[in-house]
């Protein structure tokens, strides 16, 4: 008998730094500990009632396949939504056939990278970046080139550095705004500058806008600027979107890809035909979610803003000075330790304060450049203010214990 061999791609697929330490958290829970999960962007905010009611109201006899690009009625409603968004920046309307409904924003990312890059090409990202951009690129044998952004500069993206980093096989710039893990919200002027680079170099701009509503320093009801508002950008722009964060509905697994580039849209549709259909019932729920009143978002944004402010203040109180992120619900935490991965493991394997510990995501996996992020972790502020306070208190005690264990100052 000859053993079948796992593909090289399968052997070398990176584990997500967000989930990699999950078995240690499971073991900690099995030992009776309470683990505060700051590692993963799973919001605890209630899903809009209209969306939940639509799930409960589903009473068809069969749960059938949906069309590969999603229900027409859903895409019509999405088109109106994106037309209003594009208009905020002076952009032209979006039509239903410029949208492909996908299995979460994740599948939209996979389709976007697959439609814009061949094996051996590369995408350009700004590190620290959403780690699954590398995961999907790996599956497609696409490389990742990274422009390093710095904590000391608030992780600001410098268009000149982006331009310099373009390689001979770079096909697409892939950026989230608001950013995960940095919280950076790109201004319209920054989108324009990056858009101009994409025009000049014939690149796609895959803009991941799944956190669009999560902006904390803009007037109530404002959204992060979208590339759908850029003019003369139809050939270049590909927007990634999702219901996961907007409606606190990560398990619904509905997202979409929006592009005026007909060829990209058609390729995404054909990829979609291979996996037959996005989820049926969840699309009905996502359609109902589009009727969520603005008051829901006002409340959610207020809640996250206060979480962010409490988190930053509590961290400063234990001597960790980090910049206040402008959007999404993540923060890159500078840790006064030799190795953040080791410290994250210590939190789960060796440490507890009154039966509790915290789980963080080591940040090295959010960088493409080896060695970077070694002293950083990502925090998702998806817990209520009291649990955040408690978590930072635990973190402070853990840093003390880690220092005592390492025998001297932490750094
Ligand atoms: C920046 C970013 N893009 C895309 C996604 C994909 O989310 P989903 O597949 O749940 O829509 C996430 C999830 O955390 C994210 O943070």
Fraction in beta strands: 5-15%
Give the helices and strands as they follow along the chain. Answer: HHEHHEHEHEHEHEEEHHHEHEEEH
Number of domains: 2
**Average pLDDT number:** 96
Shape: globular
* CATH level 1 class label of the largest domain: Alpha Beta
CATH architecture of the largest domain: 3-Layer(aba) Sandwich
Alpha plus pi helix count: 13
Distinct small-molecule ligands in the complex: pyridoxal-5'-phosphate
The main pleated sheet reads as: 7 strands, mixed
End-to-end gap: 54 Å
How big is the Rg?
Answer: 21 Å
Class from secondary-structure proportions: alpha/beta
The CATH superfamily name of the largest domain is Type I PLP-dependent aspartate aminotransferase-like (Major domain)
Spatial order of the strands in the main sheet? 2-8-7-6-5-3-4
What ranges have pLDDT less than 50 throughout 5 or more consecutive residues?
Answer: none
Question: How many β-strand runs?
Answer: 12
CATH topology of the largest domain: Aspartate Aminotransferase, domain 2
Keywords:
single chain, 411 residues, alpha/beta, Aspartate Aminotransferase, domain 1, Aspartate Aminotransferase, domain 2, 2 domains, seven-stranded mixed beta sheet, three-stranded antiparallel beta sheet, 13 helices, 39% helix, globular, binds pyridoxal-5'-phosphate
């Amino acid at each position: 008998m000859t053993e079948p061999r796992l593909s090289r791609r399968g052997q070398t697929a990176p584990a997500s730094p967000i989930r990699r330490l999950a078995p240690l958290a499971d073991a900690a829970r099995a030992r009776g500990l309470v683990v505060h999960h700051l590692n993963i962007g799973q919001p605890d905010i209630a899903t809009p009632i209209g969306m939940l009611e639509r799930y409960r109201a589903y009473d068809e006899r069969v749960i059938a396949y949906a069309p590969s690009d999603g229900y027409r009625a859903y895409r019509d409603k999405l088109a109106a939504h994106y037309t209003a968004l594009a208009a905020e920046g002076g952009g032209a309307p979006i039509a239903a056939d410029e949208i492909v409904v996908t299995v979460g924003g994740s599948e939209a990312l996979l389709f976007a990278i697959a439609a814009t890059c061949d094996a051996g090409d590369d995408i350009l990202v700004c590190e620290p970046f959403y780690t699954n951009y590398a995961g999907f690129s790996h599956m497609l044998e696409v490389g990742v080139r990274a422009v390093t952004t710095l904590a000391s500069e608030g992780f600001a993206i410098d268009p000149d550095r982006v331009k310099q980093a373009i390689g001979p096989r770079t096909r697409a710039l892939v950026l989230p705004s608001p950013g995960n893990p940095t919280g950076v919200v790109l201004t319209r002027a920054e989108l324009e500058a990056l858009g101009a680079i994409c025009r000049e170099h014939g690149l796609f701009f895959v803009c991941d806008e799944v956190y669009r509503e999560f902006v904390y320093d803009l007037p109530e009801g404002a959204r992060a600027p979208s590339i759908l508002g850029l003019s003369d950008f139809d050939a270049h722009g590909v927007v990634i979107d999702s219901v996961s964060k907007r409606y606190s509905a990560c398990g619904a697994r509905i997202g979409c890809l929006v592009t005026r580039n007909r060829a990209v849209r058609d390729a995404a549709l054909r990829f979609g035909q291979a996996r037959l259909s996005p989820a049926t019932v969840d699309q009905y729920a996502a359609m109902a979610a589009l009727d969520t009143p603005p008051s829901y978002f006002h409340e959610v944004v207020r809640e996250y803003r206060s979480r962010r402010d409490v988190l930053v203040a509590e961290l400063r109180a234990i001597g960790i000075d980090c910049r206040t992120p402008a959007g999404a619900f993540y923060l890159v935490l500078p840790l006064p330790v030799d190795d953040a991965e080791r410290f994250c493991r210590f939190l789960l394997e060796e440490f507890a304060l009154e039966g509790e510990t915290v789980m963080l995501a080591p940040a090295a996996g959010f960088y493409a450049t080896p060695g970077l992020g070694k002293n950083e972790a990502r925090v998702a502020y998806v817990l209520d203010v009291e649990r955040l306070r408690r978590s930072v208190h635990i973190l402070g005690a853990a840093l003390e214990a880690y220092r005592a264990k390492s025998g001297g100052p932490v750094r």
